[in-house]
Amino acid sequence: MKKFICSILIVMLAVLTAAPVPAQDKTIKRKVAIGRFTNETQYGKGLFYDKENDPMRKQALDILSSKLAQSGKFILLEREDLDVLVKEAGDSMNKIGADYIILGSITEFGRKNEGHEQVFSSTKTQTVEAGVSIRLVETATGLIIYSDEAKGYAETTSKQTLGIGGTAGFDATLSDKAISAALSQLVENIINKCMDKPWRSYILAEDSGSYIIAGGTTQGLAAGDKFNVYKKGRKVKNPQTGMEIELPGTLIGVVTVQMCIGDTPETEISFCTYNGEDLDEEHLDNYYILDE
Q: Which residues contact 262 (CB under 8 A, 6 or more apart)?
């Protein structure tokens, strides 16, 4: 009987050791690089127009950053040199240091004034319409995982009676409100797309028996956290598109965080112990980590 119970315990231990680590009841913040946000309209583009200092472009960038920061789910990395970084990274877009890249543009912008006068009163309405387009790129694959556009509206009305009342001058805040209204329709989808996918990290190096992974305290990692280690699947080419597709990886082990260090989100790392199949320490880039 004792031998039978021991056999059962050994089998159960083997099953538990091989099973994936369950998802942890915590949110690991995703690193998002907000790259270029362009103004594709002709509004405000005079003879001495400066593309780099376009006020409308900066408005949209600031509004998007604010909305994403308010969610509490992201570490925002503003990378105005993103085009250069992408070119240098080539196929390894994860070298950019972010989980996702957001690219946006203002595609439409217009103002109109409408007035209505009566015998003793008059009203004037200013309306602004803005169209915004967003693309979300996953750096691990280089694929656009979300693309959409939306329109926002804002208006203000002033009224005068017998010459008494507000005068409807130019309202500069309407452009902010219209762009914000358009972005509000897209931000929730951006958040959902980013958070639906498991958090991914990479093994950077081995040091005296410990394995160093990217990510740290700012993202929400802490001592005792466990994450699954996968060996990358092989790549196959789709003859229709010519694109290479990486097949799903194979679960081979588990890392346990021992200590987090680093001064900034870009430089934070964590030291971990590892339990599982032997790793090829000469080719650690063949592995990745998921929080599922």
A: 216, 217, 218, 268, 269
